[in-house]
Amino acid sequence: MRRFGRRAFVLSAAGTVAALMTAGDAVAAPRRHTARRHTAAAGELRGVWISTVANVDWPSAPGLTAAAQQAELLDHLDRAVELRLNAVILQVRPTADALWPSPYEPWAQYLTGVQGKDPGWDPLGTAVREAHARGLELHAWFNPYRVANHTDPSRLVATHPARLHPEWVLPYGGKLYYNPGLPEVRTFVQDAMLDAVTRYDIDAVHWDDYFYPYPVAGQVFADDDAYARYGADFPNRAAWRRDNTDRLVRETADRIKAAKPGVRFGISPFGVWRNAATDPLGSDTRAGVQTYDDLHADTRKWVKEGWIDYICPQLYWNIGLAAADYAKLLPWWAETVRGTGIGLYVGEALHKAGDPAQPAAWQDPAELSRHLDLAAGHPEVGGHVYFSAKHVKADRIGAMARVVADHYQVRVRTPR
């Protein structure tokens, strides 16, 4: 659960041990690193997320000049090349806004500090061009339903669709969201995202882990009216909500393929579909959040139905963590995609490496490299993506350098 878009400051479900661990849970001691990963001939994805919401990664602050913003962006791309990565996943629709001149939504405030203000350049267009010039794929990362990290519609620019259609919007957990239960909302958010697909030579559409919002204790997502109007054919509200999310995924997939068949569609969900104690098909975990139940996102179904081209589960836990062991989740996801033809890339928590608030395993620079060692034993794994760009650049304890030295000795192409 991320407070500002994908993975910024409070990462409660995915990022804090408290959301997962129970009293007495032990953390496994770091193991010696011995294995080396050999790149498959088919290629592998080596990606980095560049988060723009709340200026997490880029731009480093709102209100920089266009030249300074461009220089920072190119620096992130150059760093990716230096580390022999081959893909960047750039957040271009962080809060129902845009990092391109969209006819549907206002310019993102994270560029100029003022929502709707033209930054004087086209960040997405520049990113696509400059990434491709460097041999990098550009995956455009969209958040479908989040409108704002506050609950005051008057703070949105006057022409914002959420102000023009207040009936589309619900407050929850201190934020504003579009209501996924409204067909007109699903159509609108698809139109807004597809504009970038048709306008730019992006390599993929990428979604993060936000569908219905992460649960907030004591609060209710007030979609009673939409449920009364559209939910009569479902056994309960949860089933209706899951169908709403399924529809968004399936419809978007169809529209991407119709518009540009070569553009891939990938989703990066929270790493636990369901715990085995909840569902025998689930993973051997005791996670505090389950995407199926809490986010109404049946991520396993999307793989089995072939609605998406790749899945990139956020396995943001260390090897040996009792509540959500990386070494148990990795084979679960490998088994889930086996035989489906869906790509599996693993989301890696570089931001935890060297964070004193994290378990002992994350103080070891070799922890992430061991993740890739484990993945080498599962041919279904087609690569890894690191959160996030500022951590790739800073590399607090050399964990990224260790990954590169152990596994990325030569550049490779992405799997296609």
TrEMBL record:
This is Uncharacterized lipoprotein YddW (UPF0748 family). Gene3D superfamilies: Glycosidases. The keyword Signal applies. It comes from the Bacteria. It holds the Pfam family GHL10. Keywords: Lipoprotein, Signal. Residues 1-28 form the signal peptide. The keyword Lipoprotein applies. PROSITE patterns: TAT. Residues 44-357 form the Glycosyl hydrolase-like domain.
